[in-house]
Amino acid sequence: MILLIGGAGQGKLAYALEKTGLGEADVARDPVSARTRPIFAGLETWVRAHPGAGLGDLLEVNPDVVILCDEVGCGVVPVDPSERVWREEVGRLCCALAQKAGRVERIFCGLSMVLKGEEGWK
Fold it and tell me: What keywords would UniProt list here (predicted)?
């Protein structure tokens, strides 16, 4: 599994599509669809809509999935307690995914910074 993180609008999806040679039709927006598609984009959005749900057996079913997640833990701490809970959940999930990932990259201004992993893109 490859985990790509970065701020909103920083080019994560374009980067993943370029690296994999895939197109928009290959992108899932939820863990169920990601079982059969190579890219899962919008992890943070899915977590907001499904708090506490987790990813189930996604990584066992599709161990080569590329997961994209906006960084939501930077910046001003939200006043709304539910927003803080969401940020915490996304952050903890990304930490768990990073532990399991063969490669983790941060995308900033369309440029990649490898945080973990020597293995290249397949």
Answer: Kinase, Nucleotidyltransferase, Transferase
